[in-house]
Design a protein that fits this description.
The complex is a heterodimer. By secondary structure, chain A is of the alpha/beta class. Chain A has helices spanning 37-55, 73-82, 100-111, 133-141, 198-204, 254-264; strands at residues 2-6, 9-11, 33-35, 61-67, 86-90, 118-122, 145-157, 160-169, 172-179, 182-186, 209-212, 231-238, 246-249. Chain A has a single domain, classed as HUPs (Rossmann fold, 3-Layer(aba) Sandwich), CATH 3.40.50.620. Helix content of chain A is 25%, strand content 30%. Chain A is globular, with a radius of gyration of 22 Å. Strand 13 of chain A pairs parallel with strand 18 (295-298) of chain B, so a sheet runs across the interface. The structure holds flavin-adenine dinucleotide and adenosine monophosphate (AMP). Flavin-adenine dinucleotide sits between chains B (204-206, 230-233, 244-249, 261-263, 265, 267-268, 271, 281-284, 287, 300-302) and A (37-38, 188). Chain A: InterPro entries: ETF_a/b_N, ETF_b, ETF_beta_N, Rossmann-like_a/b/a_fold.
Amino acid sequence: MNIVVLVKQVPDTWAERKLSDSDKTLDRASVDVVMNEIDEYAVEEALRLKEAATASGGEASVTILTMGPERAVETIRKALSMGADKAVHLTDPALAGSDALQTSYALAQVLSTLEYDLVIAGSEATDSRMSIMTALLAERTGQPQLSGARKVTASMEGTAGTVRIERQTENGYDVVEASTPALVSVVEKINEPRYPSFKGIMAAKKKPLTTLSIADAGIDAAQVGLASAPSQVASFATKPPRSAGQVVKDEGDGGVKIVEFLAAQKLV
Amino acid sequence: MAEVLVLVDHAEGTPKKVAYELLTLARELGTPSAVVLGAGASAAADRLAAYGAETVYVSEAEELDGYLAGPKASVLAQLVADKSPAAVLLPSNAEGKEVAARLAVKTGSGLITDAVGVTPDLTAEQPIFGGSVVVQSRVAAGTPVITVRANSTAPTEAPASGTVEQVSATFSDADRAARVVDHVVEDKGGRPDLGDASIVVSGGRGVGAAEGFGIIEQLADTLGAAVGASRAATDAGWYPHQNQVGQTGRTVSPQLYIAAGISGAIQHRAGMQTSKTIVAINKDPEAPIFELADFGLVGDLFTVVPQLTEQIAKRKG
Ligand SMILES: Cc1cc2nc3c(=O)[nH]c(=O)nc-3n(C[C@H](O)[C@H](O)[C@H](O)COP(=O)(O)OP(=O)(O)OC[C@H]3O[C@@H](n4cnc5c(N)ncnc54)[C@H](O)[C@@H]3O)c2cc1C
Ligand SMILES: Nc1ncnc2c1ncn2[C@@H]1O[C@H](COP(=O)(O)O)[C@@H](O)[C@H]1O
């Protein structure tokens, strides 16, 4: 079973995030960056599926795929040190400012050059917060989308596989099934990601990392990047951070105090 | 005026509040048409007409409930091709966003998610980075596909004809690729849905046990509110997972959010920090939730919450 994990590098959510004044894109240069938190769960799930497949005598591999600036290599190394086998890094100045639709086009181009049974993504990137990458890729590849998984099982018979997930819905949960190759996204309930071991960190340095430009990946420059983005930011305004309101200590009349506040706000 | 398509969120033909909000918004942008897909769809027409739907496109094809987002996006893509609407509005929940994503690819259109407002020139307003930045965006290609958050527009009635038109959809193999083999509905006890509710009362680890949620539910019921929970509470099995609010749970932006026994971790904030008014009850004065609360009460939720419920009941008489 060959698994590709989509891993994104994002600004640390605890850091102050800004849009740059010049081109109104995320200012990635001035902030600390980390692996998108839920993508760690995606890597973990891929490693567990690989371990389960090899334990029952099958063959399996885990490939990390990242589109992002040069420094995203740090995030790729982290995924490799967790135990992934190899990585593909799509990086090119022409990609800067791409929106979600363009990113999905670029990732789909790279996916078309890889052999895989499963693609696993995180459910949501903390910077875009769109939660649509698997849906976009499903539409582009014609492959099934199984999004928001809190549980994944996959079985392979030779090259034909079946994948089944459990996904949270607004009033319960659904069980969804599809044939491979398929695209899965996972939520944090699915597992507990491992920490890279010292051995893993050392081994990661020697693992194969392929760096692709858009030309290498057969990506049409006219379809990516800020200038041709199908959605454009016209303007933006920074709001003062939500300032803390009143904080009062309960003196036995806490409930009364809250109601007074709510009444003043016309909320009750 | 050009048509504006609104994908209706409904349960067996009963529209959710967000559908009326989207129709109200669509009236500012053009002539609203409702699109109702899946089992029970036909039953929704009259209600949608009351909120301004001139046309109600209906399909109850089995595929619409049996598979994930693909089939719904196919129906919408056919309508976009046939009717050339000015825009398509969808609810900004998990399904709405996925349908929007697939529709945008199918129609070669630009996509904006999580809008809280749309102006007549189709500029969408989106809060990003937890509401610290507000962006005005426009779609530069195709038919704007915009998902709009619940509670962004106050729904108002405006009777329209609501002419029902059946749409006969054709589906591809790709639409049928991810099959829903089991659909499990867990009881919600008749409370409003988290996504719809204008008030949400949430409990966290401070609630201590499943039984502790009794006082949270009583407060919610007195306010007509939905009940939410932090991950600590859902992971402990005190409250159902579907009620989790946060980065990987539901994103809510009600008029009022009351957090009891919740510390305010960044992943929890991600799901509630654009609420209009936030009230926090926590016994730790250092809890980060107080940084974003409009009104914070440092105290024990087991005494404060019941007193609050009692006071509200009294006011309501
Ligand atoms: C990838 C990822 C995704 C996540 N997604 C989510 C998510 O979607 N939603 C979410 O909520 N979390 C999420 N989390 C978890 C998050 O990081 C926090 O662990 C969680 O929100 C903590 O829940 P809590 O505030 O209830 O518990 P705690 O942080 O333990 O806080 C409990 C609070 O209750 C107070 N308290 C205790 N007893 C009382 C009392 N008697 N009266 C009043 N106050 C009391 C305490 O002072 C404390 O502040 C995620 C984490 C990760 C890593
Ligand atoms: N540039 C990228 N490179 C690799 N994976 C990505 C990228 N952008 C998004 N993803 C994947 O898609 C998921 C959802 O992202 P989003 O739809 O933007 O919220 C992330 O958790 C990643 O797994």
